[in-house]
Amino acid sequence: MFKQLQRLLVQSYVNSQSLLGRSPCSCVLSQQISSSTCHMAAQPAVTPDNILQSHIPDIKIPTNVPFHQYLFEKCDLFKDQTAVDEFLTGRKYTYQQLKEKSIKVARGLYNMGYRKGDVVLAFSPNHIDYTVLMLACASIGVWFSAANPAYTPEELSCQISHSECKAIFTIPFFAGTVKSALDIKSHPHKVKDLFVFGEAQGYQPFDTLLSGDGTTCPDVDIDPVKDVFILPYSSGTTGMPKGVMLTHYNCLANVLQALTSIHVSTEDRALGLLPLYHIYGMTAVQFSVLFSGAAITFLPKFEPETFLKCLQGKKITVAQLVPPLIIFLTKHPVVSAFNLTSLQKVVSGAAPLGAEVTIEFTKRFTHGVTINQGYGLTETSPVTNVDVTGTPGSIGNLVANTQGKIVDLVTNKTLGVGEVGEYCVKGPQIMSGYFKDKQATDQMIEPDGWLHTGDIGYASPEGLVFIKDRLKELIKYKGSQVPPAELEALLLGHPDVQDVAVLGVPDEQCGELPKAFVVKKPGSKVREEELVKYVEDKVAHTKRLRGGVLFINEIPKNPSGKILRRIMRDQYIKS
């Protein structure tokens, strides 16, 4: 059991020994959030034309304040309070130190020639300098991208090439992986600088960027509504991974929206276990804490005993987790050996949390801890819904400033309460688009701003949304995104494979398991285990064919050649 759990967050695999301008309107905004959520009457959950809206009145979100500027004001306010720390090393930064170091790194990058619109990429597990780097990039208009630390050189090479990043930041443990990725000739790149958090041959130490002035940022004109802050990668609803352009305004809006539903105070201590390369950890977890003046404790990976020691030793009050971790807390007997009575709030995201688990969790933690489920996409910065009602199986109501609707899968007509269709959302957190992919952007976002989530569900009269199925092809393995097109392309490169379709098959513990349906070439004697091993050697372990391989005679497709995944999945489940 422990070995399985240790693989839950492979995005953060790493040897822990290797880690080492104020805005006047943002003060008004903090007051606005407090008053709007505490003193104003709730608005109707469903309008007469079946548009879903938040029960929380709209909040004022400034359009002229860059993300880092808003957070730096918080740093001035909370000064000597701990902002970020590391459980394994004991390293920590106060809010004032976080601001000063971010400005120093911003100036260091600026002096090296980095300018607005350039891209840098982090390939690293969680640590406190990750936050510094993000804010430094924001300060000079540089786009911040991040890659899954579990990536193979081939996978990393694809993102390096597509993102057009000019610098890579990693840790000594991954220095070789980065070099191998850069050596892949089929993926040309624009990388000119390599930085390491620590020391590694051929890399510039991150600390060399800290030698400059830490009082004032370089003077860079940033338009929060138009200028990109982060470039996380998502598989969207279909196909290969895509760069998601999220602006300063998108991210600022979404953190403030989330905080109207998930309340965090200066007295809270939060857990930073979810990987920072993933949008959930990057913005929803990390910055909701820092905007609130609380402290966040980072862990680089999941290990059961370390995880529990951190919850107990740091007296964690807020834990934003994924379903497998909540299942662990709910079911594993070792949890009873630890005093977790400090834990007050758990938020689940990244994958659906079953109603049964929610009920079991509340039975085990009888001291009053609440458990809520959130919902969102990388393309929505990410939060659109949070369940604050405790309704099992629901993703909850919309967050502030957000609208939703359920539409017919064929006609796109807006449906009524209780009718099942595709869930669509609209709000200030919607991405500006996919990087270098207008066609995919236009397919996902309608001209009037409605984004198609690719999830099928229905709404209750109270505006609660229930997700029942997935229209999109994306496979969710323990909350990690597994794009089937990527695995299909890989398998089609095998000499014995004529055709293939990869689907997510249901699994109680993991959500879905990637399973390949393969048509062998005539005369081939290839075995299932050969293809499983072939894929295993080339992908991050979240993408392995844990559902196995099934040999079939033909892949069902429509007249245009599109794989009929839903039919295949339904037939497999029935059989």
Automatic annotation (TrEMBL):
Give the keywords, sorted.
Answer: ATP-binding, Ligase, Luminescence, Nucleotide-binding, Photoprotein
| Principal EC category | oxidoreductase
Q: Which reaction does it catalyse?
A: firefly D-luciferin + ATP + O2 = firefly oxyluciferin + hnu + AMP + CO2 + diphosphate
Residue ranges of every copy of the AMP-dependent synthetase/ligase domain listed in the record: 73-435
Q: What is its EC number?
A: 1.13.12.7
UniProt-listed GO biological process terms: bioluminescence
Gene Ontology terms, MF aspect:
ATP binding; CoA-ligase activity
- Start and end residues of each AMP-binding enzyme C-terminal domain: 486-562
Q: Which SUPFAM superfamilies match?
A: Acetyl-CoA synthetase-like
Q: Which Pfam families match?
A: AMP-binding, AMP-binding_C
Q: Which family does it belong to?
A: Belongs to the ATP-dependent AMP-binding enzyme family.
- The name on file for this protein is Luciferin 4-monooxygenase
Q: Which organism is it from?
A: Biomphalaria pfeifferi (Bloodfluke planorb)
The organism that produces this protein has a lineage beginning with: Eukaryota, Metazoa, Spiralia, Lophotrochozoa, Mollusca
